[in-house]
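Q: I'm building a small set of examples for a reading group on sequence design. Run inverse folding on the following structure and report the sequence directly after it, with nothing in between.
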């Protein structure tokens, strides 16, 4: 049965040659704590769901919704996840275009664990050896994601078909399986969704859209505004989108750098120059941020870059120290900040770092 599944690790229910139906087998798996049901007829091994990151669980749910209704067209923040735009806040629903006004509604996630409570399911999952006996798993992990169906945009659009790569454990070292899903075009998704998002979430996604990537083209701000003029009905949202486009930039190279710019703005500090190249003793260094005329350089330090560096953590840190020493040798002050500083309520540490370094405030 498992070998016949083209979308593993997702499993879709279907008839067997002997007249039985695999949904009976999967229902038994749920009662044993071995499987969860993401959508009707679509299942996932429980250990994979419980040990995945929230963003990975969201991708599994998108794929499950696509397998349940192959004609679905995904939109809004869900389309961002499919197109590969960063999401600062994970959506609570899978967003889908409705076929009619009467079909526009929100529905809650049906129980991932059947008739079992989350606590009882976790107990059975441990008993079945699906999860570590000593690890703590919150029942909140088993809430899942509901669905939100929205009216089509007022602009005429044609859905695109994308291959959504499913997460797999790193230990398997195998090619990521894909599910074909329908999604609204990226430019329509950005123009229709960004004006609905809070400032920080909007800029993180918009910077990435303007920058582009290997799997998607960069988008032109004027083109996006032209779409918004025809698709955004609220004049207030349209003005807000215009403000976002004037603030956004294709230069930040990560979501952390984009969010840092937002925090500088929110805290009342002037905006720095981005990706400035500095040459020291014949070596060139690209600076994340530099406040012109102040001698202050800002560096966003995301720990992920060290985990992704093929040289290894220690060597990468050593090279970073050499780089920082070279920058400081020019008389510049280097300040470093981290995700924790950007997400701290009130951003007190970040404000203190910028103030002590002499970063100017906006008048």
């Amino acid at each position: 049965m498992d070998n016949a599944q083209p979308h593993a690790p997702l499993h879709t229910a279907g008839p067997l040659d002997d007249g039985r139906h695999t949904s009976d087998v999967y229902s038994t798996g749920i009662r044993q704590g071995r499987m969860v049901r993401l959508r009707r007829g679509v299942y996932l091994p429980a250990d994979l769901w419980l040990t995945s990151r929230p963003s990975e669980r969201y991708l599994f749910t998108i794929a499950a919704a696509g397998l349940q209704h192959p004609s679905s067209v995904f939109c809004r923040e869900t389309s961002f996840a499919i197109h590969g735009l960063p999401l600062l806040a994970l959506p609570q629903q899978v967003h889908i275009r409705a076929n009619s006004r009467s079909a526009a509604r929100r529905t809650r996630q049906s129980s991932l664990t059947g008739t079992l409570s989350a606590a009882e399911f976790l107990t059975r999952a441990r008993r079945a050896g699906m999860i570590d006996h000593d690890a703590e798993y919150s029942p909140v992990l088993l809430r899942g994601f509901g669905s939100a169906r929205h009216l089509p945009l007022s602009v005429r659009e044609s859905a695109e078909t994308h291959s959504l790569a499913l997460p797999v454990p790193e230990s398997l070292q195998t090619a990521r399986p894909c599910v074909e899903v329908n999604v609204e075009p990226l430019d329509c998704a950005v123009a229709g969704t960004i004006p609905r998002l809070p400032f920080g979430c909007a800029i993180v996604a918009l910077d990435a859209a303007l920058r582009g990537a290997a799997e998607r083209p960069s988008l032109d701000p004027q083109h996006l505004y032209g779409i918004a003029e025809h698709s955004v009905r609220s004049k207030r949202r349209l003005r807000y989108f215009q403000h976002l486009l004037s603030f956004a930039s294709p230069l930040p190279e990560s979501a952390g750098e984009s969010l840092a710019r937002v925090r500088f703005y929110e805290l009342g500090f002037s905006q720095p120059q981005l990706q400035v190249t500095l040459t020291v003793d014949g070596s060139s260094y690209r600076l994340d941020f530099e406040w012109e005329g102040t001698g202050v350089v800002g560096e966003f330090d995301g720990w992920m870059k060290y985990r992704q560096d093929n040289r290894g953590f220690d060597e990468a840190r050593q090279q970073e120290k050499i780089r920082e020493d070279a920058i400081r040798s020019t008389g510049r002050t280097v300040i470093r900040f981290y995700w924790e500083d950007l997400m701290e309520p009130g951003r007190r540490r970040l404000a203190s770092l910028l103030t002590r370094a002499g970063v100017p405030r906006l008048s």
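The chain has a mean pLDDT of 90.
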